[in-house]
Amino acid sequence: MREFIDGSTAIVRGALGAGCTFFAGYPITPASPILSQMLAELPKLGGTAIQAEDEIASIGMCLGAVMAGARAMTATSGPGISLYSETIGLAIMAELPLVIVDVQRMGPATGGATTPAQGDIQFLRWGSSGGYPIIALAPSSVAECFGLTRRAFDLAERYRCPVFLVADKALSSTRVSVELPEAERWPVRERSLATTESLATAPYRYQPPEGVPPMRHFGAGRRLRVTGSSHDEWAFISKAPATVDALNRHLAAKIEAARDAIETVSLDLDPGARTLVIAYGVTAGALRDALSLARQAGQRVSGVTVQSLWPLPRNAIRRALQGIDRVVVAELNLGQYRREIERLAGTREVLGVHRVDGELIRPEQILEAIR
Predict the structure, then answer these.
(1) Which residues contact 309 (CB under 8 A, 6 or more apart)?
(2) Cα separation of 332 and 126, whole Å?
(3) Around Cβ 143, how many Cβ atoms within 10 Å?
(4) Packing angle between helix 55-67 and helix 78-94, nearest 10 degrees?
(5) From first to last of its 371 residues, what are the pLDDT tens digits of the chain?
(6) d(CA 276, CA 304)
């Protein structure tokens, strides 16, 4: 059945369908529609939705809910992510599954509250102390807002970590007629919990480094500790070099080793093309139109829409680069993701199509770079 909805509604539908049982947020343009819809819809399903007193309280409530057994989500925009930063680090260190929606708007600071942008890309990757890897997904359509929200919950549970869903003002607030993909296409796993027999074992495990131990909730078995400090497998603070090393390598390895499983892209490749265009999020719409126009004019060009921004989908991009001489990266910032592509492109020419004036990139701008 087709519906006339916007990206915010699709994100809410995806979260509810993924089994979200707790939401906390604070009003901020352009993420407020997610808050208002979750306040209205989540209690109908027996869940809890809270408008907190501020952004820091919002994400803190979510982590507390996760520790008690909830499947949680919060939503904000760039200024809110700034305030989330320290607690995001706690979620990484404590290995707590959480979905964080960032509906991007133009920055810095208050910036353009009603202006579309894609300026948080590097901020999300490096915005918490320590520089440990995170997972970030970027829908490029209303249908993908639904599907990738479900996938975000699945990845959060699978790897016990915060997962970002990176939208933007234009995508979240624009209504289109869309048929949401069936939920079965985007399965969400149940949380892996320690069994009664294993409750006496440590709640964390660093060997093998890429392993992900089952969670324990408060009140289950031996007293559960949670800390943001470097800790041993029982969550007792430790400065022992071997323990700290094992912990930190584990936090990185469980994400890095899963690149192939996390990697999600949409490929539109022409084997004879010498030019490749890469885009993500709302800008991918202009990419699709530009490819169509270029091919109608007899030009051979390939395209990649990146849906898993982080970890960088290196394998897929390297495959797409085969036979390519020139790469065009289109994004609503001054070249944040282009920097990552340049590292993979080697001696190939890499061009950027960028806008930071509050307007969306047009297909004609990409066509000009292709030519």
Answers:
(1) 121, 124, 125, 136, 137, 138, 166, 280, 337
(2) 19
(3) 17
(4) 30
(5) 789 999 999 999 999 999 999 999 999 999 999 999 999 999 999 999 999 999 999 999 999 999 999 999 999 999 999 999 999 999 999 999 999 999 999 999 999 999 999 999 999 999 999 999 999 999 999 999 999 999 999 999 999 999 999 999 999 999 999 988 877 777 899 999 988 777 777 889 999 999 999 998 887 766 678 899 999 999 999 999 999 999 999 999 999 999 999 999 999 999 999 999 999 999 999 999 999 999 999 999 999 999 999 999 999 999 999 999 999 999 999 999 999 999 999 999 999 999 999 999 999 999 999 98
(6) 7
Neighbours of 201 (CB within 10 A): 17
Cα dihedral sign, 359-363-365-369: positive
DSSP string, 243-290: HHHHHHHHHHHHHHTTHHHH--EEEE--TT-SEEEEEETTHHHHHHHH
What pTM value is reported for the model?
A: 0.96
The b/e string for 88-122 (b: 16+ C-beta within 10 A; e otherwise) is bbbbbbbbbbbbbbbbbbbbeeebeeebbbbbbbe
Measured over the CA atoms of residue 360, residue 108, residue 55 and residue 138, the dihedral's sign is positive
Residue 219: other Cβ atoms inside 10 A? 10
- Quote the tokens at residue 20: 């979200």
* Host H or E run for residue 341: helix 336-345
Is the peptide bond preceding residue 30 cis, with omega within 30 degrees of 0?
yes
